[in-house]
Design brief:
The complex is a heterodimer of chains A (218) and B (218). By secondary structure, chain A is mostly helical. Chain A contains 6 helices and 3 strands, in the order H-E-E-H-H-H-H-H-E. Helix content of chain A is 53%, strand content 4%. The chains are: A mainly alpha (218), B mainly alpha (218). At the A-B interface, helix 1, helix 3, helix 4 and helix 5 of A face helix 1, helix 3 and helix 5 of B.
């Protein structure tokens, strides 16, 4: 690692309001298996927001990894290209947050895609559409919560890529159309959706096994 | 570290992160002084007079007028295209009508926020002084230009995010920014480009954007 690659971590250590860690909460939480369930505490302040984004990016990366590992029957080369491109972007986002958070990063989350039938194109594209639009709304809602403008700017370089993904997925579903331009997600004033972390986490919850706790996120 | 990671961090950290760091420091300095951003020679209208819109600081007014100027540019571009018979193939009319409606919405919204401080709509030459004579007769020229204009819009809003940190208008700007990215993604797919140029979208400074759009302003 060169010194300039350490920049985000240094910044986080300087600005971070509190440490994120792992809480072992055996009996307090639903038992997912033999071992006690691990809950990931997102931390406080900007760290919590970044960990929240990191969790969502992990969810997306895991989803597209599964899609490209087990492509549905009849998948087109155009679809493979799009899913591969998006998967690589999500992985890069995961790496970015992991590295930026350093010691404050939550551990890798455990995902649950049992509700998605990966053999069906419509299920895969429907889930991709939902994840991308949730991501856009989540980043739009998180931006104003960030105190550090460096993090705000970094989030800005990612949210628009999520919005581009939403358009790409919509174009696979409907072709380049009013839907891919955002119809259904953009208001009559031309404004995109925005969602607070509590609402986003509630929507993502069915797909995330690891309980995420963040007292500071509303 | 694999080649891809090297590429990601090689480009993101020194280039983007250091740049956004500099932009943020710059913004903080400006905030403290509440100084007027130096006007760019072209588009004198962009740097508005001493008017304050509903008590917004001059720096915010300037950012919003810069955004409004670009939205006027986009709105006029799609009004003209959507009103030109035979330009847009039937299957893509929904896409460009939707985009046009969003741009009209952005203009209305920014004018409302700015009130009497809003800049007047500039006059445009979409052939860029004869460089694109077929802009409204050849769909390929039009759609290619559209994808470039949308990419520029995304980068322009992203470049101002740090300048709006802490302001109530940040939320609205973010919700416009991701809509521009949806547009960019859809039109790029239509013209056969990947939806995104990479995992991280780069910002553009005000002077970079104004240089890029200058040929279209009369």
């Amino acid at each position: 690692m060169t010194s300039d690659q350490e920049y985000p971590r240094r910044t986080i250590l300087k600005w971070g309001a509190g440490a994120a860690g792992i809480l072992v909460c055996g009996s307090m939480l639903p038992n997912f298996g033999i071992s006690p369930a691990l809950a990931a505490d997102l931390g406080d302040g900007d760290i919590a927001i970044l960990n929240y984004a990191y969790a969502l990016e992990q969810l997306e990366a895991a989803f597209y990894t599964k899609v490209t590992d087990q492509p549905f029957k009849g998948i087109t080369s155009q679809e493979i290209d799009a899913f591969t491109e998006i998967r690589d972007h999500e992985r890069a986002h995961v790496d970015f947050f992991k590295k930026a958070l350093g010691d404050h990063a939550i551990p890798a989350i455990e995902v649950d895609f049992s509700k998605i039938n990966f053999d069906r194109r419509s299920n895969v594209l429907g889930a991709a559409d939902a994840f991308e639009n949730l991501g856009v709304a989540a980043f739009n809602g998180a931006g104003p919560l960030l105190v550090n403008t460096d993090y705000l700017a970094a989030a800005g370089t990612i949210v628009s890529v999520e919005a581009r993904h939403a358009a790409m997925i919509s174009a696979l579903l409907h072709g380049p159309s009013s839907a891919s331009a955002g119809k259904g997600h953009v208001s009559s004033k031309g404004l995109d959706e925005t969602m607070p972390p509590s609402k986003v986490l509630a929507q993502a919850k069915p797909f995330i096994k690891t309980p995420l706790t963040a007292a500071s996120l509303k | 570290m694999n080649t891809q990671e090297k590429h990601i961090f090689g480009s993101v950290e020194p280039e983007v992160v250091e740049r956004i760091g500099a932009a943020a420091r710059d913004a903080l300095r400006k905030n403290r002084k509440l100084a007027v951003i130096g006007s760019v020679p072209i588009l004198l209208a962009v740097a508005s007079a001493e008017a304050f819109a509903d008590g917004l600081p001059q720096q915010i007014v300037d950012v919003l007028n810069y955004a409004l100027t670009l939205e006027h540019f986009e709105d006029s571009f799609y009004r003209k295209a959507n009103g030109t018979d035979g330009l847009i193939p039937a299957k893509y009319r929904g896409l460009f009508r939707e985009i046009g409606q969003h741009e009209t919405g952005h203009v209305a919204l920014l004018r409302e926020v700015l009130g009497s401080a809003a800049v007047k709509p500039p006059k445009f030459d979409f052939t860029a002084g004869g460089k694109y004579p077929e802009v409204f007769t050849n769909f390929k020229t039009f759609s290619t230009l559209s994808s470039t204009i949308e990419d520029t819009g995304v980068a322009a809003f992203k470049g101002q995010v740090s300048n709006l940190a802490g302001s109530p208008v940040l939320q609205t700007a973010l919700q416009i920014h991701s809509v521009e990215a949806r547009h960019a993604g859809s039109v790029r797919v239509l013209v056969g480009k990947p939806g995104s140029d990479g995992a991280f979208d780069k910002p553009m400074s005000k002077s970079e954007v104004l240089d890029a759009v200058k040929p279209f302003f009369i």
